[in-house]
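Predict the 3D structure for this chain.
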Amino acid sequence: MAARLLLLKHADLVSPKVQRAIVDFVPWKRMHKIRDMVDIMHNTSLDIFEAAKQSASQGDGVGRKDIISALYRANSTASDEDRIPDHELVAQVSSITFAAMDTTSNAMARILSILGQHPEVQGKLRAELHDAFSKLNGRDELDYDTLSSLPYLDAVVKETLRVYAPLPFIVRESVRDAVLPLQKPIPSEEGKPVDSVFVPKGSKLMLSLLSCNTDPDIWGPDAREWKPERWMAPLPSSVLDAHIPGVYSKLDKKIIWEWNSVVQPTTEDAEITANGTKVLRLPLIVGRVPT
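Done. Predicted structure below.
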């Protein structure tokens, strides 16, 4: 990665060993710092991958719920055509770790900050956690299943991710011509109602997660307020009807995860392609971001 930053578009013309030698040779402290960070990430990814691989080979990784173990199991059972080599799986570990590091730490920092601003919420959450810890029965910490069963903790996390999304928007590029249906009609420049948008191949799309998460039409007039209690009762029908994928999704179609070199979503009733795989899709409705 460090070499690619240095060599830019010519990096593909030089072997990885030569790239590394160039980076080591160039007297550039900032580049060497990036090199060292990449080395740490790579070695950590190797350790994580080897641990998941060893756990699976010993038969004790069947019940593991971490994403790396799931990735390894899916790749192990994939066909020869779809299976990817170990070094690419290690690269996936690095990508997942890099992508999750800042978003997770920022979300944790936001939760701690906002709990300090809402002592009444902090008190209720503390009481729930204290009760859970009192039932550990000799264990040192709360396991995944126990944490997942704590309703108020779940509500605090979901509400924080909704109102203060660590990643407020994402950018995507369309790989083919497509027509996106809109959640509700919008007026065109001529004043006519438009209920869909044509997206040509190669278009760059900026998708506002934050706007969707705080849309009053979906969440109600208090959409921009931080209220964990909203998750302690059934969500309004407008949220369910929007079919929003994510931590608050309650889709009316069963989601199936297909292994296509990476795990990708589709639905139970999706069409079958010529090679026997399901067409990738998610049942969601796209809306225009209010300006």
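DSSP finds eleven helices and six strands in the chain.
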